[in-house]
Amino acid sequence: MIRVVTPSPVPDTGIWLVAHKDNRRNARITAVLTLIAQGIRAQAPRLSPAE
Q1: Fewest CB within a 10 Å sphere: which of 7, 33, 39, 43?
Q2: Could you write out the DSSP letters of every residue in 20-46?
Q3: Dihedral angle sign, alpha carbons of residues 22, 25, 29, 32
Q4: Which stretch, 6-10, 12-16, 32-36, has highest mean pLDDT?
Q5: Coil, strand or helix at 35
Q6: How many Å apart are CA 18 and CA 32, to the nearest integer?
């Protein structure tokens, strides 16, 4: 068997990371959001469509 990957359409919107206003200043929430944002930035070339 061979896995066939169908191309996904390129999203036309950005990625949003949000937190409820009551949790915005929570150190744990901030740490997780920062980690996720860093991971997305590190993968930006792979996430951006090739032109």
Answers
A1: 7
A2: -TTTTT-HHHHHHHHHHHHHHHHTHHH
A3: positive
A4: 32-36
A5: helix
A6: 11
Contact 21, 5 (CB under 8 A): no
Give how far the C-alpha of residue 51 lies from the chain's centroid of Cα atoms, to the nearest Å. Answer: 20
51: amino acid identity, one letter:
E
Q: Which residue has the tokens 């950005």?
A: 14
Residue type (1 letter), 12? D
pLDDT exceeds 90 at position 24:
no
Residue 42 has pLDDT above 70, yes or no: yes
Q: Name the residue ranges covered by the structural domains of the chain.
A: 16-45
pTM over 0.90: no
